[in-house]
Amino acid sequence: MSGQSITDRIAAAQHSMTGSAISKAVCKASTHEVSGPKKKHLDYLIHCTNEMNVSVPQLADTLFERTANSSWVVVFKALITTHHLMMYGNERLIQYLASRNTLFNLNNFLDKGALQGYDMSTFIRRYSRYLNEKAMSYRLVAVDFTKMKRGIDGVMRTMSIEKLIKTLPIIQNQLDALLDFQANPNELTNGVINSAFMLLFKDSIRLFAAYNEGVINLLEKYFDMKKGQCKDALDIYKKFLYRMTKLSEFLKVAEQVGIDQGDIPDLSQAPSSLLEALEQHLASLEGKKTKELTADTRASTLSSAVSSLSNTGMSFSRMDEKERQQALEEEQARLQALKVQSTPSISTATSAWGGRSHTFRHKRACNIHIEIHTHTHTLTHTLINECGVFARCILSLCAPVFRPDMQWSQPGEKKLTGGHSWQSKTMTSTTAWNPAPMAPAPMTFPMTTPQVPMYGMVPPQMGQMGGVQLMAPQPMMYNQPVLRPTNPFAPMPGAQMQFM
């Protein structure tokens, strides 16, 4: 199965007609095409999570609806999209997911109608359990372990003993759900499961980094704990060692499927003598006869263990630094591309506008400007205020495109005649800005554009803004010549703007 299916195209067309851009983007990100969700759709959905006038529950519900599909490809990609938004989107998305009583109910999912349906359905069930556990962790501690501050002054290193003992088991449960994905290199056979594995890999690094720092804090405070706390802490440490071994196996799979070696951290376990020291200390608190280590030996053993685990923690930061640098480079490239495309050269800005090449560049700049603004605005006087010098060009060239229902009228227009060789001069979108020696005829048209949400974003009420009562939008009437002057940015002779 490859490419978008007919069902995908029909669904996208339906969302286009209804104006639901969020639903369309979710549909596009979770098509039947056997490849990971496309970056442009994920980036748009991330942008939506940061827009305060976008309904996060609606976005989440749309993702849930896609997981009700019978195709493993669609369901898997919907889960991947959700996971991606949990990682890189606004925190209010994971807050909403954590507030729900139920999330993904895919424990019995099975696609019997596809070639890889049985195998991929197994990973879908495991993957959905991890996302449920990730949301549950946030519900319990109100923080995403993969995003919390790390380092000497990080959250886990400065946490109190009581809170540590409650928090570390929550991290353990989330890490267990992640490692239960259990994919070997032979099963990572398509772009969909590979995309999921990459997100799990990134989560495993950051999750274990927080886990590791919590254990360091636990060990540093262990010999000052009460008996009950020591017992809990020793159990946590033993489970930590087991999960470190499991993570090491997971990272070997990552290495075999081509993940950059520089992104894979080195796991350095504490010396085995530390575990012996911890057990002896607990035994002495319980009144058992045991050989207690001297204070110097205990301090030396603890220092060596903390040093080893700290080295492990430092190696976890390589992937974060690389990803931050990559994101910075992409942002700079994007801004540079916009600057090159939308900023006219000095010679173009200062020269006459009669030439065809200047007209082409001017129109291209206007088209780009329109494309940028029409993602979040409709063609109203608000757009005019924000677009500045481009306003007149936008209205003259592109208003008919955005307002097919616009009524054009020329009251009192007189038919012009000019002899047998006279030809009508009408402006089109490709006509150069050359004035014609003819008398201007006044033209009047209304500019009352309905506020239709763009890309699923609900615009603020026009009557209010920031709690201040504003004047309701009024229709604008333009009386201006049909033909434009040489310089489109110059004041228009005889043009009048009236707010009726």
From TrEMBL:
Residues 410-435 are annotated as: Disordered. It comes from the Eukaryota. Residues 420-433 have a biased composition (Polar residues). Pfam families: ANTH. Keywords: Acetylation, Cell membrane, Coated pit, Cytoplasmic vesicle, Endocytosis, Golgi apparatus, Isopeptide bond, Membrane, Nucleus, Phosphoprotein, Ubl conjugation. It is found in: Cell membrane; Cytoplasmic vesicle, Clathrin-coated vesicle; Golgi apparatus; Membrane, Clathrin-coated pit. Its main location: membrane. GO terms for cellular component: clathrin-coated pit; clathrin-coated vesicle; extrinsic component of presynaptic endocytic zone membrane; Golgi apparatus; nucleus; synaptic vesicle. Signal peptide: none annotated. GO terms for biological process: clathrin coat assembly; clathrin-dependent endocytosis; synaptic vesicle budding from presynaptic endocytic zone membrane. Residues 14-145 form the ENTH domain. GO terms for molecular function: 1-phosphatidylinositol binding; clathrin heavy chain binding; phosphatidylinositol-4,5-bisphosphate binding; SNARE binding. The keyword Cell membrane applies. Belongs to the PICALM/SNAP91 family. Cytoplasmic adapter protein that plays a critical role in clathrin-mediated endocytosis which is important in processes such as internalization of cell receptors, synaptic transmission or removal of apoptotic cells. Recruits AP-2 and attaches clathrin triskelions to the cytoplasmic side of plasma membrane leading to clathrin-coated vesicles (CCVs) assembly. Furthermore, regulates clathrin-coated vesicle size and maturation by directly sensing and driving membrane curvature. Binds to clathrin; involves primarily the C-terminal sequences, but the full-length protein is required for full binding capacity. Binds phosphatidylinositol 4,5- bisphosphate. Interacts with PIMREG; this interaction may change the subcellular location into the nucleus. Interacts with AP2A1 (via its alpha-appendage domain). Interacts (via N-terminus) with VAMP2; VAMP3; VAMP7 and VAMP8 (Via N-terminus). Interacts with LC3/MAP1LC3A. PANTHER family: CLATHRIN ASSEMBLY PROTEIN (PTHR22951), ENTH DOMAIN-CONTAINING PROTEIN (PTHR22951:SF11). This is Phosphatidylinositol-binding clathrin assembly protein.
